[in-house]
UniProtKB/TrEMBL annotation:
The chain holds residues 482 to 773 of 780 of the full protein. It comes from Alishewanella jeotgali KCTC 22429. This is GGDEF domain-containing protein. Residues 25-278 form the EAL domain.
Length: 292
């Protein structure tokens, strides 16, 4: 009996760990819908910097969840759960509403800034979404050019013809589209010509070590050359340091989004950051070569 107990110990311990994470999942799934109405979610904005013009005219909106007992919960964790449980449209609609409201209030101070919202696969299959987005923009008197939507290729691929039809409606209305996390999953450069996109975001996996890794540098260069040749804006995601900036510039990327320039910021801090960047942004860049 004593032996049998000892044998059971590791298994019991394992089961406890599993129960805990299962419990956490259930809590998050249960609390998500009401959390949207009770002020636990917020939106942060991360600048996308045009490294050629040395200006910032874009940002990505990212969701944040401060849970009353669990504290900060990463979107990597709860977005996946929301997708699995069919709740992602609640999040997407909430984000679109918040971002459009923010864009409306920025029309005076920052009319040039376009903000990107992430959409999931289920959103792309919702045939009513394009009209809903356009109506919300019109109601808030926000120009369609102020909104970008970010989608991954794998989200498009779940039902490509339907997703592409919906994306085309949005693009024809003037909303910009970005392919997110490019280079991961089943990304294919050739496929880009079939998608109604205007921006390709090269995944952080290829950017984070670009100053040390020649293979990453070559992949980024080839991607930037082809996507740029197709007339698309190429954004490098997740750049953290100055050495990498020279590499992504050399590779032909036009935009950078990463901690090097700024972490995701509250709306107020982003607005301040934009003003600081407009006046003191040069310090981020390599000194200009004197042609004399
Ligand atoms: P994403 O759309 O690829 O967003 C970029 C993520 O990279 C963000 O993480 C951002 O904070 C992070 N990041 C940016 N620059 C750097 C850097 O220099 N270093 C590092 N280490 N990270 C950097 P975050 O906010 O945790 O979001 C993770 C993912 O969750 C997003 O990846 C997106 O797939 C999803 N997500 C976030 N907000 C939303 C949302 O509102 N809706 C949907 N559907 N998904 C969202
Ligand atoms: Mg994104
Ligand atoms: Mg990404
Ligand atoms: Mg991602």
């Amino acid at each position: 009996l004593a032996n049998a107990k000892a044998d059971n110990l590791p298994q019991a311990w394992y089961r406890t760990g599993q129960d805990e994470s299962h419990q956490r999942e259930l809590t998050l799934i249960r609390d998500l819908p009401q959390a949207l109405d009770s002020g636990q979610f917020s939106v942060v904005f991360q600048p996308k910097v045009d490294i050629v013009a040395r200006r910032c005219r874009a940002a990505e909106a990212l969701i944040r969840w401060q849970h009353p007992t669990l504290g900060f919960v990463s979107p990597m964790e709860f977005i996946t759960l929301a997708e699995r449980t069919g709740n992602i449209s609640l999040i997407s609609n909430w984000m679109l509403q918040q971002v459009i409201r923010q864009l409306a209030s920025w029309q005076q101070l920052h009319p040039q800034v376009a903000v990107a919202v992430n959409l999931s696969a289920a959103d792309l299959l919702d045939d009513a979404l394009p009209a809903r987005i356009l109506a919300a923009l019109a109601e808030a008197a926000v120009p369609v050019s102020a909104l970008t939507l970010e989608v991954t290729e794998s989200a498009v691929m779940q039902d490509a013809s339907r997703a592409i039809a919906n994306l085309k409606v949005l693009k024809q209305a003037g909303i910009k589209l970005a392919i997110d996390d490019f280079g991961t999953g089943q990304s294919s450069l050739a496929y880009l010509k079939n998608l109604p996109v205007h921006e390709v975001k090269i995944d952080r996996a290829f950017i984070k070590d670009i100053e040390h890794n020649q293979q990453d540098a070559l992949i980024v260069q080839a991607t930037a050359q082809l996507a740029g040749g197709l007339g698309l804006t190429v954004t490098a995601e997740g750049l953290e340091n100055h050495a990498g900036l020279s590499r992504v510039l050399d590779a032909g990327c036009q935009q950078v989004q990463g901690y090097y320039f700024a972490k995701p910021l509250s709306a107020k801090d982003f607005s301040q950051w934009l003003q600081d960047f407009a006046t003191q942004g040069e310090r981020f860049f390599p000194p200009a070569v004197d042609p004399a």
